[in-house]
Amino acid sequence: HIVEEISILGPVFLHNLFPFERYISILKKYVHKRSSPEGCIAKGYETEEANLVFLYHGMMEDLARMRTLGTEMIQTNDNSSFDKAHSTVTQQSSMVGPYIEEHKKLLVANHLGNSEAWITCQHIEGFPAWLQLHLMRAKDIDNQLAWLARGPSSDIVTFQGYEINGYTFYTRAQDRKSTNQNSGIRIDAIESDGNKDTYYGCIDETWEL
């Protein structure tokens, strides 16, 4: 008889009642007053959707929140480390992307015949100063972009950890004291030959520039 039913009804998923039975069991949980089941189901749906919207916005606020962890310390670093940190920040910023391409094209136009590796070295070394001078001549620029161009203070604030986008990162020194460890990072950086490569490492210090 099963063969005959299959030939009449077709594939099983077209006449399988299990999904509908499971869905009805969900609806039955909303019914708290048997005299008006439709109203209870509508109210239950409304409450569930409101909870989902509240949870979604709460999660988005948590992900967007950034805060530092641990004791604040102020230190003054050597110019080499300071310049590398500032260069890394500008190279990773999406707002600075168009200016990076403009600076590279300018270097190529002014130094025809030089290798791509030479252009990249000159770009990394001279881009922060060029960006600052270039934006000083502009009339309407974004405030955040203007702050990036000016560069940070020479006094750097350091912390043991940083919380961003729902993730908490610690320094290696703090990792040794904590039960939960998360000091590993990945960064896409530009090499001297102009190619982008992915580097993996650990956080030694957290700087707030």
TrEMBL record:
Q: What Pfam families does the record tag this protein with? A: DUF4218
What species does this protein belong to? Paspalum notatum var. saurae
Ranges where the DUF4218 domain occurs: 1-50
InterPro entries in the record: DUF4218
Q: Where are the transmembrane segments?
A: none
Please give the superkingdom of this protein's source. Answer: Eukaryota
What this protein is called in its record is DUF4218 domain-containing protein
